[in-house]
Amino acid sequence: MMVIHRNVIYYCIIVIVGCHGSKTIETSISTALRAWESIRSPTTAGCSVQFNKINFLEAIQQKCYIRGRPSDPPIHVAVVACGGEDRVEETIVNIKALVLFSTIRITFHVFADEELQPSFRDRIKKWPSYFRRQFTYTIYNITYPEDGQQENWRRLFKPCASQRLFLPSILQDVDSILYVDTDILFLSPVQEMWGEFDKFNSTQLSALSPEHEDPRVGWYSRFARHPYYGVTGVNSGVMLMNLTRIRNAEFKSDLQESTMRWQQMLLPLYVKYSLNLTWGDQDLLNIIFHYNPEMLRMMPCNKNYRPDHCMYMQMCASTAHEGVRVMHGCRRSFHIDKWPTFRSVYAAVRDFHLCSPLPTLVQVLWDGLSRGPDTQCKLSSDVILRGLRRTIHGLL
């Protein structure tokens, strides 16, 4: 049986009360402690959530016990957002999920259009102070090299998506980083993904997931007009980058016989293949790793789970045991009626009250998934719930 010191309970109640900025903290603490000790529901503890004895303990664990040691080095995460307010919301929900399930402090590097930056700051300020203490963030202007192709880089596939190609030169003081598209939703602790860096061998400098599991239905294997990695190509929505290794590496290509540095290679590759690129910077990454396969580590598809993995049948074998660890809402699947399963997961995380015990998220998600129309992806809802249950069980 877990023994929780009274002072720890005091601290946790302060955190919980802080969710709503109560001005009567001492009164709330005393009331909550009396309720706890008499095994009654502490309904006046300051949060709008009505705790019973069990989920009150879960809330204490959630707020106090799952956080990492202050001495743990932070995890660096980069995200790029350009366009409209919908991208701001996606990025905020993305960050919310990352912090919600993390036990280690995260440092976010957010690249955004200048007109969107105030909205980012305003939305983050609305989060409870205890939650904001779990991460730091810096917002950067969108920056491209002075190579005469700035507008072409910006418009390559989605607006500003190619910014990630230039992270090695922009973030000179960062050794390694996790890049995520705005439409990424973590259902697992980010340190699980970060642990992939420890599995790199001496030549690997990046990690990605396959674009598809089956070459018979894969996009690259059927339609690509340029070289690509492996049998089905790779998807770049979730990308681990050892920036130090990328900066120092010599890359082979079909541009010239001698090797080239990363920054030196990007523009010539773009110029050569610009008319054949469908997915922009992702295509360029496929070309690079086609000629340098020893530099890439492959991650399982459950760490970049997309509608493609369930639109016809379940096509991601790694979900069988661990469930979905990271969802990728490409095809606007977090927002449109065509993909109700993905939309339900996004809505559940977006609307989750940060004062609520984590296990309530499973019930909310189950309700949303079960109410949705019957689709092939709905038939795969169990692997999504399995992943989330696995995460919350590990945290609590």
Output the CATH class name of the largest domain.
Alpha Beta
CATH fold call of the largest domain = Spore Coat Polysaccharide Biosynthesis Protein SpsA, Chain A
Query: What percent of residues are in strands?
Result: 5-15%
Question: Helix and strand string, N-terminal first?
Answer: HHHEHEHHEHHEEHEHEHHHEHEHHH
Q: How many domains, as an integer? A: 3
> Main sheet, how many strands, which sense, barrel?
7 strands, mixed
Function: Glycosyltransferase which elongates the O-linked glucose attached to EGF-like repeats in the extracellular domain of Notch proteins by catalyzing the addition of xylose.
Main location: membrane
Protein name: UDP-D-xylose:beta-D-glucoside alpha-1,3-D-xylosyltransferase
EC number: 2.4.2.42
Supply database-style keywords.
7-stranded mixed beta sheet, two-stranded antiparallel sheet, transmembrane helix, 396 residues, Spore Coat Polysaccharide Biosynthesis Protein SpsA, Chain A, alpha/beta, 9 strands
